[in-house]
Amino acid sequence: MSHRDVNTRPVVEEKKTTETVLSWKKWLLKRESLLQVLNLLLVFASALVIWKGAIAVSLSESPVVVVLSGSMEPGMRRGDLLVLSNRTKQLRCGDIVVYKVQNREIPIVHRIIEVHDDGNEPLYLTKGDNNFFDDRSLYSPNTFFLRRGDIVGKSIFIVRWVGMVTIIMKEHPFLKLIIVGFLSLTVLLGE
Amino acid sequence: MHSTSVRFNVLVTTSLTYLIVLHAFCILYSWLKRLEANPQATVSFGSLVSLKKLPNQLGESAVVTFQLDADLQSMWNLNVKYIYLYLVAEYSSPRFRRNQATVWDRYVERGSSSFSAFPFYNSLGLHNFVDTLRNASMIFRLEADIIPFVGFVFHTTLAETMEIQFPLEYTL
Fold first, then answer.
1. I want to staple B142 with a disulfide (CB 3.0 to 4.6 A). Which of A149, B31, B158, B166 is the partner?
2. Does B153 contact A156 at a Cβ distance shorter than 8 Å?
């Protein structure tokens, strides 16, 4: 072994150790980044599972709705959140229901004021508590009653004002992007 | 020591937790109070003022008088926002074995411990354009929906009348 070899060996070994540590750090950083992304995906997946679970339990295609108008005031105001259940087989006068009609995209929350049941397919007439007239003008043309299939669900639970967030985001769509982006960043960059 | 975002996160999470706990307490409290509630109500049928056929195939119309009295004191608690009272006429007809129609309704606000029918509300109309009201056996039922600030919407039947038989023919 030469004198030169003895002098250079510790420097070379130190350089190799530093490179090894750096490569391990890079690998760990990538792993942490991947974990953060997986965490974010887990949050979205959990939300989806909860929503689908609620649909399965309530038997309603939309188990949670927001009151968008004042037609049911004073009992229900704009921004109130309603939890629906479609498990009730026999609806009755007085039930607050959410229904959809063919020519309207947004479902309507009103109260049943008439029921006519011949044993096969009951017919329902609805009206908003704050409206003077019944809902016949809102139904599809030449339709004077709702059928069971038109009804999305019956309101069983109320939470006040929570739906205002949805209304604000609906009126200002860019806010939805900002809020979802902010929450995603929080999960990605969070400790 | 802690960043602004961490502090904000903790503040929001803690506030939401407290809010959810408060809501859960209100729901449990109102559910327990509902079990203790004992509202008193009577509804009685007065008379059939008229039963007639409407023009242009708009169906039939009946006007009846009734008297109702209700003491709702025991139904109120800290989580009750409104009580929605309504009178439902239930009858059978040749085409439909079960017909229900809301003939009168009223939102009762907080502070209204009792409710009595005023003469203005004693006459009410019952309309039918799918079938006939003639010869119908009718029951009037006073129902109530308890509308909470937060929680479940509860329904209860307060009182009902005896069975009333409508005449075979239209009245004049």
1. B158
2. yes
d(C-alpha A65, C-alpha A3), whole Å: 83
How many angstroms separate the CA of residue B91 from the nearest CA in chain A? 10
CA distance A169 to A183: 15
B97, A96: Cβ pair inside 8 Å? no
A135 is a catalytic site residue? yes
pLDDT at B162 over 80: yes
**Helix, strand, coil content of chain A in percent (nearest 5):** 45, 20, 35
In this prediction the ipTM stands at 0.85
Q: DSSP of A75-95, one letter per residue? A: TS-TT-EEEEE---SS--TT-
Q: What is the mean pLDDT of chain A?
A: 84
Q: How confident is the model at residue B151 (pLDDT cuts 50, 70, 90)?
A: very high
Radius of gyration from C-alpha coordinates of chain B:
23
Q: Give the global pTM.
A: 0.81
In a domain, B99, yes or no: yes
Q: Which residues of B touch A119 (CB under 8 A)?
A: 97
Q: Residue B22 falls within a domain, yes or no?
A: yes
Mean pLDDT of A151-155: 93
Collect all residues of chain A within an 8 Å Cβ-Cβ radius of residue B155. Answer: 94
Query: Could you give the number of structural domains in chain B?
Result: 1
**Per the domain annotation, does B161 fall within a domain?**
yes
Highest mean pLDDT among A32-36, A82-86, B50-54: A82-86
The tokens 């509630």 sit on which residue?
B37
User: What is the span of the domain harbouring residue B159?
Assistant: 4-165
Q: Strand runs (DSSP E) across B7-153, as ranges?
A: 40-53, 60-71, 80-91, 98-108, 114-116, 123-128, 137-148, 151-152
User: In Å, how far is B171's CA from the nearest CA of chain A?
Assistant: 24
Nearest Cα residue to B128 out of B116, B136, B120, B118: B136
pLDDT in tens, B14-60: 998 999 999 999 999 998 988 888 888 888 888 888 888 877 767 78
Residue A176 DSSP one-character state: H
Q: Is residue B171 part of a domain?
A: no
